[in-house]
Sequence to fold (213 residues):
Amino acid sequence: MSAPPYAPDRDCPLCPRLAQFREANRAGYPGFFNAPVPSFGSRDARLLVLGLAPGLKGANRTGRPFTGDYAGDLLYSTLLAFGFARGRFEARPDDGLELLDCRIANAVRCVPPENKPVGAEISACRRFLVAELAAMPRLAAVVALGSIAHQSAVAAFGARKALTKFGHGSRHVLPNGLLLFGSYHCSRYNTNTGRLTETMFHDVFRAARAALA
Fold:
């Protein structure tokens, strides 16, 4: 069975650098997932959380977004706190955690070297984001984690960049009526440096929850 239109094939060849890195990781880490990481959560969800790309030893290892590295600890605890998830997050795909009215995806589906996709890779993968957005009939809001995810969402929706600038705590109403919230990425670097605190992160999801009430 072929992959659905909103997800790339396991051996997606669109980005040569990422495909080469994927093959190297399959040789170096044969127990890892090492493939484009699928989204997590129901397509009937009203909220989409959009990240940047899988982490090498996080989602690229486990096969579930934000699972296996520090960023997931903060994200999933926040989703649990605001009623977007239930269960117990144990940083593994079989932990039984369930998302509620929420889906998680990445702007780039394959792990990039040094966690830094280049512009051509972001653009090439956007076709899957566009298709996925179209496959979410009840979508009402997107929380973009970081400027690249924000910019990719803006491009996917065909919105004007000048009118939808990224900033932590930003909120934009897109031409189609959807809400786009911006947050600094919940990476270890951002939290260790104090650029992002748990309170700041919670404020974004509190706003999203209020908008969907």
Remarks:
- The first helix runs from residue 16 to 28.
- Residues 16-211 form a domain with the Uracil-DNA Glycosylase, subunit E fold (CATH 3.40.470.10).
- The chain has a mean pLDDT of 95.
